[in-house]
């Protein structure tokens, strides 16, 4: 029997039903939300989990970021990237860790979207392009949670979307009564993600509906479409969604800028191929 939307919501809001989130991850996210907590304190907590801290350091030292000097500690990463960015890295690595096989290619698609979002953010002059990257990294998190909570139903949804040639959201709504963006909204509220990131997770298919930052939602919207066009990983349906013209107008990117974004992001994606295995314990 398919899980109802009401039951899905209860399970998402009850973090104990998500074993991909160890107890210490919840501790970390709460510490990040506390203004009195220092980078040193958070870094020390993260570093108690050697696997997670190694994954974060592997990502920030990879060609994906391209920092000129090696970042040797999670505390250093916190100072350079900011609390919310590292919080996003912690959440994404913790959640993606569990379902590599079942959501084949989703980490690769998410990382490709993240890299593109970062470069788009840089081109349009946002104050924190690293946050755009986290928006891209987390944008399909709802799919991972659906796969975790109802794997057989979700695999059926993926097969159906491929057979019909339609977007996965359409089948998700038929099967579960909600799609992955609604799951992402519940997660974002439960994890106290910033409003800009919440908009990116919830409205990356329809950025004009974003309540706080249409720009962030538009950046992740475009990045998602470009990642699909570049065939970065597997988003679950094999389609190329329509570009929201209002969002594209908002970003005001020239052909030259788009070409630069695509070329630079592709270079980062190809050079960072080894770090992609990090995302799901592969």
Question: How would you describe what is shown here?
Answer:
About 65% of the residues lie in helices and about 0% in strands. The chain contains 17 helices and no strands. Helix 1 runs parallel beside helix 12, helix 7 packs across helix 16 and helix 14 packs across helix 15. By secondary structure, it is mainly alpha-helical. About 50% of the residues are buried.
Question: Which helices and strands occur, and which strands form pairs?
Answer:
Layout: H1 5-13, H2 23-32, H3 39-46, H4 50-60, H5 74-81, H6 83-96, H7 106-124, H8 129-138, H9 141-149, H10 151-164, H11 168-176, H12 180-190, H13 195-203, H14 214-229, H15 245-251, H16 255-271, H17 273-276
Q: Give the count of helical stretches.
A: 17
Supply the helix-strand structural class: mainly alpha
Q: Return Rg in Å.
A: 18 Å
SSE order, one letter for each helix or strand = HHHHHHHHHHHHHHHHH
Mean pLDDT: 83
Q: Sum up the overall morphology in one term.
A: globular
The percentage of residues in β strands lies in under 5%
- Fraction of helical residues: 55-70%
- What distance lies between the first and last C-alpha atoms, to the nearest angstrom? 31 Å
State the low-pLDDT regions, or none. 278-282
| Largest sheet: number of strands, sense, barrel closure | none
Oligomer: single chain
* Number of DSSP strand runs: 0
């Amino acid at each position: 029997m398919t899980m109802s939307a009401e039951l899905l919501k209860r399970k998402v809001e009850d973090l104990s039903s998500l074993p991909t989130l160890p107890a210490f991850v919840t501790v970390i996210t709460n510490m990040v939300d506390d203004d009195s907590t220092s980078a040193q304190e958070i870094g020390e907590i993260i570093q108690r989990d050697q696997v997670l801290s190694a994954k974060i350091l592997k990502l920030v030292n990879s060609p994906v970021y391209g920092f000129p000097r090696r970042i040797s500690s999670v505390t250093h990463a916190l100072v350079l990237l900011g609390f919310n960015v590292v919080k996003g890295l912690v959440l994404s690595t913790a959640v993606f860790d569990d379902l590599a096989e079942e959501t084949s290619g989703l980490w690769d698609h998410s990382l490709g979207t993240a890299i593109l979002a970062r470069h788009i953010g840089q081109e349009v002059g946002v104050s924190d392009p690293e946050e755009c990257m986290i928006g891209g990294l987390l944008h399909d998190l709802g799919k991972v949670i659906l796969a975790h909570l109802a794997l057989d139903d979700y695999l059926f949804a993926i097969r159906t979307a491929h057979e019909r040639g339609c977007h996965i959201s359409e089948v998700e709504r038929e099967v579960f009564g909600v799609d992955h963006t609604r799951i992402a909204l519940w997660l974002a509220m439960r994890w106290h993600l910033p409003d800009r990131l919440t908009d990116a997770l919830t409205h990356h298919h329809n950025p004009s509906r974003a309540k706080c930052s249409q720009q962030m939602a538009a950046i992740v919207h475009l990045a998602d479409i470009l990642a699909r066009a570049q065939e970065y990983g597997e988003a679950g349906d094999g389609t190329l969604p329509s570009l929201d013209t209002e969002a594209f107008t908002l970003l005001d990117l020239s052909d030259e800028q788009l070409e630069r974004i695509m070329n630079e992001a592709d270079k980062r994606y190809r050079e960072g191929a080894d770090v992609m295995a990090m995302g799901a314990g592969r």
